[in-house]
Amino acid sequence: MNRKQFIKLTGITATGILAAPHFAFNTSTSTTSKDFLIGKSNYAFKGPSWQMHQETYNAFILMQKAASEAGLSIEVVSAYRSFERQKQIYEGKYKRFTKTGLAPLDAIKKIIEYSTIPGTSRHHWGTDIDIIDSNGTPRPTSVLQAEHFHGQGPFCKLKEWLTNNAANFGFYEVYTDNAQRKGFKYEPWHFSYAPVSKQLLVDYRALDVKQILLEEKLLGAEHFTDDFIASYRKENILDINPELIA
Length: 246
Prior knowledge:
Elements (H helix, E strand, L loop, with lengths): L2 H8 L3 H6 L11 H7 L16 H16 L4 E5 L4 H17 L4 H8 L16 E6 L22 H10 L5 E3 L16 E4 H11 L4 H7 L10 H12 L9
Antiparallel strand pairs: 1-2, 2-4, 3-4
Helix pairs in contact: 5-6
């Protein structure tokens, strides 16, 4: 499917995306925009179980159908996550790691190998999905492991198909297998819908991340120094697939 066919099928245009009311992300005039970007909005995400941004959902259904025709069954493991859900994940790990004896800052560094700090997750936008092949066998107990997507892993066929086809539907791997990339570790299951998420990242970069995190009084927030936030912003938020940066 070429780009022209994709746009025709989904009805997506750059003008349409930017004109939609929920994309008015001028944080100097709207607190709603900030709420959306940090996972606290009441936007009506789309989906029967895992929720996505409307445009992302439309594109995902097309990709899922195409994969099905190739004998693959794309299963969503995670899509939209609210601030509160991300907070549960983050603080649960923080408590567990510190109880085992890790110093607070070391616990935070361990958490952000794979998990984001609440308020900074791309999953807050409903544009990012964690996916596997439900036809892959044998199904591992822990599905989101890189080795399952390569070699003889149960999801290696899906990985190969996504590498060749995901971009045709607007989806790109976020945390690529690039030795030069910093921040979050390689996640071959995590894809983002670029026609929407690229603009959201532009808007997110205008936020004062440190102030937001301090206001939320997260566990370990006293360790979010200027240097920590600067590093986290550069490496974890922005050191991603270049196809997802405007």
